[in-house]
Design goal:
This protein has about 575 residues and is of the alpha/beta class. It contains 17 helices and 23 strands.
């Protein structure tokens, strides 16, 4: 392993939040070629989200990400798909094998939809993993361990610079688990950086590096201040600066509790706190991607009989107390913009809490104490603070947290580790001609509408397969081409069948119509002309194709990966 080589993965402040809440609060990673690293952490801590971000399936809400020296923020969606197809191999948590393909075809799918071009490479990779004899077997007939090794082979066959594996040994017995880990280790030995998510300490121990995620992706330490306890340091400005200088500390955020009152729009009084890095709020409306500004606030969707939904995005006047004497005070007003609303069921800091920036929280707390913000912070200080630890040497992550906590305790702080969180003739003949024209128009419009509906239904019915193809590097344009190809094939078959049935029907009606109309109608006269035959032949395919283009654009508007994830 070359420790002087540039990192294959370099991220700083990488964050993502799902619309329904949860995600990843922050991830700082540095992973070099030839290295195998493990990501550990409880359910909901953002491990799978982290892999989706590194695999360029999701775009980060904040932070930077470089893959193989490429700044992913500068890439278009097509560019991200191309980089993933070229440089990233992914082993999915549910394997993501396509059940309508056999073993080698699943491995070849890593290169894209043209499987036959990559038969040799796929079979060779299976051979390297001791599965050459199973290359033509349907994946539904293979054991769990064999399927998992096929998933690893698919991830490794392109010789990517980065291999991501989501719980690759889950459900396997020790022998198969060791075989899978050996396969991943061989990927690292070929020069790839390997990052795997695991719940097994034994698996993590054989990796070169270990990242431990808490809820939201951070590991933090909480400092507390207790009024009247002289043995615990007050969290004054100078004390917090001292805490920030402790080796391994990246940030210190202080909490200054206060109260916001209704000045308009109802009657309520909300406890207010600083929004700290460990506050993984379940946002239901609005959004914020970083620290709050001094004129911003995040509120519960409703509290104390007040519904704040209609106020989202507006600047609202809030009242607060400004002390003027020992037991007296006046009401002051501050205007804050409501940038987001969270689920009121989330009560980590109590019911109905308003979250503010650190400076605004300090201003309100200072006013309540009858002091200026600066003087209050210098003399009385915060009630509590969150220390965010920098993970410099990842393999020593847990020991470092303990060391930082111990250092802070030695300096007199009350410090404790906390968990993060898709015609011209009249009469009958003129009427017949008009009817034919109208029929062609109806056929075209019907095909167009059918194509749009069919595209949507097809995309929804195959969302799981499309999500897998997205992860393997297929862009949404390629998924639309799959639907378009199916629509043109179906339309072409329908056109041929329609022309044949129409011709036979017209020929069979020539005699009966001669009798009814009293006119000699030859069979050849009853047949549609070349223009009509061509129209009947091509319109179903063209209409279905056009409808599919429109329908698939709408059906695939949201990334299939996110849709599949939302539906479990």
């Amino acid at each position: 392993m070359n420790n002087t080589s540039p990192p294959v993965v370099l991220s700083e402040g990488l964050a993502f939040r799902y619309a329904a809440g949860g995600g990843l609060s922050r991830a700082d990673l540095s992973l070099r070629a030839g290295t195998m690293a493990a990501v550990e952490g409880p359910s909901g801590s953002g491990k799978s989200t982290l892999l989706a971000l590194l695999g360029l399936i999701l775009s980060p809400a904040a932070g930077s990400l470089h893959i193989a020296g490429t700044d992913t923020a500068a890439l278009s969606p097509a560019g991200r798909d191309a980089l993933r197809l070229r440089s990233v191999g992914i082993v999915l948590q549910d394997l993501g094998l396509l059940t309508f393909l056999n073993a080698w075809e699943n491995v070849a799918a890593a290169f894209g939809p043209r499987l036959s071009r990559h038969r040799t490479a796929a079979r060779a990779m299976l051979g390297d993993l001791g599965m050459e004899q199973l290359a033509d077997s349907p994946v539904t007939e293979l054991s769990g361990g064999q399927r998992q090794r096929i998933a690893v082979a698919r991830a490794a066959v392109k010789e990517p610079v980065l291999v991501l594996a989501d719980v690759p040994t889950s459900g396997l017995d020790p022998k198969n688990a060791n075989s899978v880990m050996s396969s991943l280790r061989s990927c690292a030995e070929r020069g790839a950086a390997v990052l795997l998510v695991t719940h097994s300490a034994a698996v993590a121990e054989v990796c070169d590096q270990r990242y431990v995620l808490g809820s939201g992706g951070l590991t933090q330490i909480e400092l507390s201040s207790f009024e009247g306890d002289a043995s615990v340091r007050s969290l004054t400005s100078s004390a917090l600066r001292e805490a920030a200088r402790v080796k391994g500390v990246r940030q210190v955020v202080a909490d200054y509790p206060s109260v916001l009152y209704a000045e308009e729009n109802g009657t309520y009084d909300l406890a207010s706190h600083t929004l700290t890095p460990d506050d993984d709020l379940p946002v239901v409306e609005g959004e914020f991607t970083g620290p709050l500004g001094p004129d911003e606030v995040v509120l519960p969707a409703n509290a104390q009989g007040a519904d704040f939904t209609s106020l989202l995005g507006r600047s609202v006047a809030f009242g607060y107390t400004k002390a003027t004497g020992g037991a007296s005070g006046t009401r002051a007003v501050v205007k804050l913009k409501i940038v987001a609303l969270y689920d009121p069921g989330w009560q980590a800091d109590g019911p109905g809490v308003a979250y503010l920036s650190q400076d605004t929280a300090a201003l309100l707390a200072a006013a309540r104490a009858g002091r200026s913000a600066g003087d209050f912070r210098d003399r009385e200080g915060a009630q509590s603070a969150v220390v965010v630890v920098v993970v410099v040497v990842v393999v020593e992550h847990q020991r470092q947290v303990a060391a930082v906590t111990k250092s802070l305790q030695d300096k007199g702080f009350s410090a404790s580790a906390v968990s993060d969180r898709v015609r011209d003739l009249p009469g009958l003949f003129g009427a017949a001609d008009l009817a034919m024209r109208l029929g062609v128009l109806v056929l075209a419009l019907g095909a167009l509408a059918l194509g749009a509906v069919r595209a949507g239904d097809s995309a929804r019915a195959r969302i799981g397969q499309f999500a897998i193809l997205r992860i393997l590097g297929a862009g949404r344009p390629e998924l639309r081409r799959v639907l378009l190809g199916e629509a043109m094939l179906s339309g072409g078959v329908a056109g041929v069948v329609g022309v044949l049935v129409g011709t036979l029907l017209s020929a069979s009606l020539a005699g009966p119509l001669s009798d009814v109309l009293g006119l000699p109608i030859m069979v050849m006269d009853a047949l549609p002309g070349p223009a009509w035959a061509t129209a009947a032949l091509l319109l179903p395919a063209a209409g279905l194709a056009a409808g599919t283009l429109f329908g698939s654009r709408e059906a695939l508007r949201r990334d299939p990966y996110l849709t599949a994830r939302a539906h479990g």
